[in-house]
Fold:
Amino acid sequence: MTKIGRVSLVGAGPGDPDLLTRKAFQRLQEADWILYDRLVSDEIQSLFPAHCRTESVGKCAGKPSIKQVDICKRLIQLASSGHTVCRLKGGDPFVFGRGGEELLALQAEGIEVDVVPGITAALGCAASTQIPLTHRGLSQGFTSITAHGARALDHDWHALVALQHTLVFYMGIESAILVQRELLNAGMASTMPVAIVERGTQKNQRVINGCLQDLSALIVRHDVESPALLVIGEVTALPTELALPFEQHFSASAGERIKTPSYQSGIHHLL
Structure:
């Protein structure tokens, strides 16, 4: 009787191989099969062990892609044949990664599964670009949202604006026009600072700053490509104001909103 294998759902983080956890690297070394997503960077792919067989199962918007149900079937097939499988996902497996669907499918077949968390793009890209997702006097929270298929998801845009949180849109490049229009219609200021983070945490990372009213135009003007993250909120202006005296950043009393300093729209590289 064939011994049943196991599957590890592993988060690869936002792209920088140094941000892989030790457990994630260990699961890569233990695997005899790696099924990886499109957002797993070339640098991380270079760490795949030579003895391991690999298979790309990545999805790309607007292009033919393997269906999620077929990915689940492939994982079940490999594990049922006795293989040790590393299912490698960009970011964290359970943040817009469909890790939950794969977990349930494998558990239904009685296959052993473990989950290795990864640094999700919102945290990794914000930190690497020196954007604090929360900041006293500006934002008491942040909300991560998928912009993929936004029409079908039917977000409550007024509620998002009313939160006064930093908003982080995953997979937002193709839907930028929709995001911009709906936030403006819901009452967000046209001058709200935004940052577009392309290839966050990687060597060729790029950050484009501007205002909400120019969001879609900035993407076209700078030929932004995926993977890219949209960060919308007053905190995105802070990295351009580091020359301010330290005391000015902490001059507001508890609960008082600090006025966001003015900034210039532009593009910069931090790595």
